[in-house]
Amino acid sequence: MAVELYPASAHDVFHGANVHYPREVDEAVQQIHGACKGLGTDEETLIAVLGSKSPETRNLISLRYKELYQQPLKSLLKSETSGDFGRLLRMISTPLAETEAQILRDATKGMGLGRHAQLGAQRRLP
Q: Coiled-coil intervals in this record (predicted)?
C-alpha cells in the first residue's frame, strides 16, 4: 500500500504535466488578491479562503496565484502578514514538500531541538 504524502497536483507539476484549475481555485485566487490589495489586509478573508481548503486545493491556489500575478503566494503573504499568523498562512499556502523542507531547515539551524524535529519528520516518511 503506497502512502500519498503530497497532493496529486504536486506530482503533476514535478513531472511537467499541465495543471487544470477548477473554478474554485480561480475564485480563491481573486479573493486573496482582493484581500491584499490597497491599504491594509483583510485577514479574515485570508483565513476564510485558505483555512477552508484542502491541501490539494491550497497547492493549486499557490500555483495559480504565481501563474496569474507572477509572484509566489508565500511572498505576498510575507509582505501582508506577520508573526506566527503570517508564518502559518505561508506554511499552508506553500507546497507541502517545500514547507517540510523549511521546517527541517529551521529545526536544524543553531543548537538544541533540531535532532528531535528531524526524527519526527523522518518518522512520517514511509
A: none
pLDDT, tens digit, 9 for 90 and up, residues 3-48: 566 667 766 776 777 888 999 999 999 999 999 999 999 999 999 9
| 14: enclosing H helix or E strand | helix 8-14
Count CA atoms closer than 13 A to 33's CA, side-chain side: 17
Torsion of Cα atoms, 66 then 71 then 72 then 75, to 10°: -160
For the four alpha carbons of 112, 83, 122 and 66, in that order, the dihedral sign comes to: negative
- In the chain, the domains with their CATH numbers are 21-94 (1.10.220.10), 95-126 (no CATH)
